[in-house]
């Protein structure tokens, strides 16, 4: 019996195609009227797309909030574009947030494969079903960008998309690197560090390790960790913890320097695995690094001999609720 | 030679008075003109005040962002109130953000003891010097609320303040509870869980343990952790990790139920230490729980035989930069 019974590897291998297909899903869907802010409501795999939208729009004038709760922020009104994202369409927190956003007269667009959400929402982007939500990150991110593009709120450069796809399609290299990382992680608790900008990517690494490998992991960001967490390294040891440092060539020069110095501090106590973020466009940097993390979590699952696809604890928990 | 050479315990014991005094610091300081959003720039101990402001204003219509980076978000403009918070006044990230906010014509108010920031900023709230920034959380939070109160942007109820001070002054009970918690944490890595609303409080527990006890700790929130992290518990063991569950009577009923069920899941693998959040007003709940975490980190430092006050790694790092 193979460990990867539901073929997570095959799903991962299809990821570049998923990203490419996902952009055309919101065909013809636009937002009308003034938008002063964007709120993305979702949980887990469906919320990370919101974090990534916030990151993608970090150089735009429009504020983006991600809401992982039973209601939307109090400031939401008719000028707020609210994406309610639930892969299953039945996530109770997201359904509850949908009703709250509706009461506040927000402009709502739902991203879902179906479920209750598809019955409630007026504007829906239907995404292909049959995946684990976390494996559908392309479907749960690019359609939001597509809506904003359709509404002239954001530009998407073909060059950026092509650069991203080229990096994603370099799978053999990614897999080799992922296998090496998985080997270094096993037996220790990894802490994934990035710049504040790429924090959603570091969080994605954590949650993929949690869900695919059923394995503890944590994440944190520079420069903030320099002001507190770095003090805790003295009580760590290399048999228990290991650091993964996501180094982005576009990081602020002072962040690069901070990472360099912290690496020295950390290496006295724990191993530091450096990952060079690849690509020049933000889109390429985000998704090539996410993809490496996804493969790393997959190979860690193989080493731990756990099937990456089922998340039995989450399913059990839903039933208890 | 005592371990607590700089008397962190005395500083902690004075915390209720600090909170009381802090509200009157921005006497006469107001914001003029329309404010559509608030951004708090700061790092470490100076940034947590921003997280707490966001939490405190969670039921108001005004969006609050906390920025822990070298620049402010792109949307900042003349309608944004930017608090630049740096206890020393020399935090390089905050100074850099100050210049960025100025370029964007934001309404800036600085909170600082002095330093470079006090020379640059037009509107300054001077806070008493001589503390570790993390021990000055009262001085770094309440003056922002005071400015908003002076500007008729927020109401502060005397009853809430009094409830908070009553709980903070119940020090003997807090200390007993903190000593017990410190004992249960020692030798393990604590993960502090709260509702999404109280996440800044859980983060404060983490960073106080990191800085005062020089000890690893992590934090996370419900319901989000139900969608990913809970899967990693199966690979944890009670000799390595321990959970601290901050249970707020005001939590959403579904969050309460989620915590109850997750406790059962976690207890198979790790100990779960439940902390009942006290108080009915948000202010009382926030600060009484923070205070318990502060004392816990102090007693953990005593058990670990490290002086809670100096943070040598941070100081060394600043010199290397």
What is the C-alpha radius of gyration of chain A, as a whole number of Å?
20 Å
- Interface with most residues: A-B, 67 and 67 residues
Mean pLDDT of chain A equals: 97
Tell me the overall shape of chain A: globular
Which CATH class of the largest domain in chain A is shown? Alpha Beta
Number of strands of chain A: 9
| Helix content bin of chain A | 40-55%
The CATH superfamily of the largest domain in chain A is Glucose-6-phosphate isomerase like protein, domain 1
- Major sheet characteristics of chain A: 5 strands, parallel
How many domain units of chain A? Answer: 2
Describe the structure.
The structure is a homodimer of 321-residue chains. In chain A, helix 9 links the parallel strand 6 and strand 7. A five-stranded parallel sheet of chain A has the order 2-1-3-4-5, with helices on both faces. A four-stranded parallel sheet of chain A has the order 7-6-8-9, with helices on both faces. Chain A is α/β, with parallel strands linked by helices and 321 residues long. The interface between A and B is large, with 67 and 67 residues.
């Amino acid at each position: 019996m193979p460990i990867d019974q539901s073929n997570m590897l095959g799903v991962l291998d299809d990821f570049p195609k998923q990203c490419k297909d996902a952009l055309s899903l919101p065909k013809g869907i636009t937002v009308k009227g003034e938008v002063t802010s964007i709120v993305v409501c979702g949980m887990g795999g469906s919320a990370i797309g919101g974090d990534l939208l916030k990151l993608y729009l970090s150089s735009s004038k429009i504020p983006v909030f991600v809401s992982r709760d039973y209601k939307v922020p109090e400031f939401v009104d008719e000028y707020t574009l609210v994406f309610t994202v639930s892969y299953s369409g039945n996530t109770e927190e997201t359904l509850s947030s949908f009703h709250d956003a509706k009461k506040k007269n927000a402009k709502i667009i739902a991203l879902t494969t179906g479920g209750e959400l598809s019955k409630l929402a007026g504007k829906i982007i239907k995404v292909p079903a049959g995946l684990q939500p976390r494996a559908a990150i392309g479907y749960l991110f690019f359609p939001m960008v597509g809506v904003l593009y359709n509404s002239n709120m954001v530009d998407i450069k073909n060059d950026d998309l092509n650069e991203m796809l080229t990096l994603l399609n370099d799978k053999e290299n990614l897999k080799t690197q992922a296998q090496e990382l998985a080997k270094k992680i096993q037996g220790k608790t990894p802490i994934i560090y990035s710049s504040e900008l790429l924090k959603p990517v570091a969080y994605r690494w954590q949650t993929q390790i949690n869900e695919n490998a059923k394995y503890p992991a944590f994440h944190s960001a520079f420069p903030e960790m320099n002001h507190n967490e770095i003090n805790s390294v003295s009580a760590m040891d290399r048999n228990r913890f290991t650091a993964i440092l996501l180094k982005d060539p576009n990081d602020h020069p002072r962040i690069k320097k901070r990472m360099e110095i912290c690496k020295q501090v950390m290496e006295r106590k724990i191993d530091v695995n450096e990952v060079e973020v690849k690509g020049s466009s933000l889109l390429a940097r985000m998704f090539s690094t996410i993809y490496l993390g996804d493969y790393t979590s997959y190979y860690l699952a193989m080493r731990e001999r756990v099937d990456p696809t089922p998340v039995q604890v989450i399913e059990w928990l839903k039933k208890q609720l």
